[in-house]
Amino acid sequence: MQQTTLHFSESENNYQIKEAYKTLRSNVEFSGQDMRAISITSCTPGEGKSSVSMALARAFAEAGKKTVLVDADMRKSVMVGRYKTGSVRLGLTHCLVGREKLSNVICETDTPNLYVIFSGPIPPNPSELLGGQIFSKILDNMKNVFDYIIIDTPPLGSVIDAAVIAKQCDGTVMVIEDNAISYRFAQRVKSQLDKAGAKVIGAVLNKVDMTGGVYGHYGKYYGRYYGRYYGKYYGKDDSSDNGSMTGGNPKRVFQPQKAAERPTPKPAATKGNLDELDYIEGVVRKD
């Protein structure tokens, strides 16, 4: 297992943003007791889906849930350049093509309970690899070890990879940038997910301007209230997005149902379970 240190920007440590992701985490938990493998997608690049994926995985880890974030945006990943500090040689691609064991490509981070699988080299056939038997087996094996699996996928408005992954997951969350995506475009992307057999459990409205209007009044009010108790005047924090993907501020998630408390996963968190896919016929390991 690889070791890495994650670097988070100042905006991602903002109190209001972290509270928003805690709400997102709670809504995912209430979406169903079997909702453990969650894919995150968007309509176009730059809407902040990678930031949402990382923040959601971090929120689950901080709640004591053993969580793995899988960077499945194999065509144009931003995870390594944005968050990783240190040497990471192996990624998801190495495992999908049969060059490495799953336990070797997982990175243990400096955040307790948070693990990451980076994308690795760009393959010539991402859709075929993600829709193959090995990726499906990887998901099954990780469910035996982790409480939650968060998968960052490419924008569905650009390539079909997200739909290929979503149909193998328990649920899918769409990230939509405020005042950037039309209603019809978002509906077309959701329709594509429905055709693939994916279960859309909600949407995140991202990069909301919190400095004015209704949301601005809401943020200032609660900033003053909590500032008295936490020693910081959050109402003066500028949590609006500055155009970068890391500055996203999720506002709401719409969940369709409530469910009973999720049962404890199978207690077999061993390297052997992760590497069970070694027995898939036709997979060749270099060792």
Topology:
Layout: E1 2-3, E2 5-6, H1 15-29, E3 37-42, H2 49-62, E4 67-71, H3 79-83, E5 84-85, H4 92-96, H5 102-105, E6 107-108, E7 114-117, H6 126-130, H7 133-143, E8 148-152, H8 161-166, E9 171-177, H9 183-195, E10 200-206, H10 213-230, H11 271-274
Helix pairs in contact: 1-2
Structural write-up:
- The chain is an alpha/beta fold and 287 residues long.
- It has a domain at 35-206: P-loop containing nucleotide triphosphate hydrolases (Rossmann fold), CATH 3.40.50.
- The chain has 11 helices and 10 strands.
- The strands form 2 sheets. The protein has an 8-stranded mixed sheet, sandwiched between helices.
- Strand 6 (107-108) and strand 7 form a beta hairpin.
- Helix 1 (15-29) crosses helix 2.
- The radius of gyration is 19 Å and the shape is globular.
- 39% of the residues are buried.
**Please, how many helices?**
11
Tell me the β content. Answer: 5-15%
Q: Indicate the structural class.
A: alpha/beta
The counted number of beta strands is 10
CATH superfamily of one domain: P-loop containing nucleotide triphosphate hydrolases
Strand order of the largest sheet: 1-6-7-4-8-3-9-10
